[in-house]
Amino acid sequence: MQVDFGHTRQKTVDNKEAKLNFIAFVLSHSRQKYKEWLDRPFTTRDVIQAHENAFKWYGGMTNEIVYDQDSLIIVSENGGDLILTKEFQQYRESRGINLRVCRKADPESKGRIENVVGFIKQNYAKHRVFHNIDSWNEQGWEWLNRTGNYKIHNTTKKRPFEVFLLEKQHLKPVSQNIDIQNNYEISIARCVHKDNTIRYQSNRYSLPLGTYNKYEKVCIKETETKELVIYIPDTGEIIAKHSIPEGKGMLIKDKKHSRDRTKGVGAFINTVAERFEDKELAFKYLEKVREKNPRYIKDQLKSSCAKQKVSITKYGLKR
């Protein structure tokens, strides 16, 4: 099975334009197809739900699923070692998916699904007027039965649905559907840009100063309260939170992100250390705190100011 994404721009009933996104599946032997559309960008949870629907459509799953290097599924590929988005990794483990990722600029490894994406755009979507996403998907499934899986394939010279009747016998059975709503959160990987921002739904969101130098990608989650939570994929550490606005083309910026939060910390440490009876030991201790928890050093220094008389030897530091 191969999986890929596509998008089109459709004329609407009120003569406007709508950008639609779809995910497509194809079985490598029979060329039996499945697809789903959304009138918004896909999230990782949407991708997982589409997989569940596809497995139900096919009546099983294949031994291997081939993907493009999409940020909804893959965070990075390092020398053949895949780092998946947190939610898709959980899903992969729960479903026992054996996946393979296409190399960049390697059209032969994903030729079948790329042909399907083009076929959907040219045969189904072209010149079709968009009313709403529900009717668009219903028409799409009717098209699969009528054309997409019925029309004789140019390579196999057979109708996909006829070959599928034989291929279906070799699919792995799928257990009861997974509860996507309760088990998987919305999560998307985003590239960090040089100006320490990420792009999401036509807006830019700020990140702490220096993020670009540390991380190539971060992950985001959109909460039910329309808040964008940005975190490090490997550790889950939250580095930023923003309210999601209604408009487009905006820069949503946290003022704290434009400041170097380590600037002046050294002077602050010296000032605080001077307030303790054993200044040298206090300085050594505070430097260790700074090294271990750089994000919280200022808060801890402020707390230390309120405890000027306390001896620092209880923390186990030695000269």
UniProtKB/TrEMBL annotation:
It comes from the Bacteria. GO terms for biological process: DNA integration. Gene3D superfamilies: Ribonuclease H-like superfamily/Ribonuclease H (3.30.420.10). One of its GO terms (molecular function) is nucleic acid binding. PANTHER family: TRANSPOSASE (PTHR35004:SF6), TRANSPOSASE RV3428C-RELATED (PTHR35004). This is Integrase catalytic domain-containing protein.
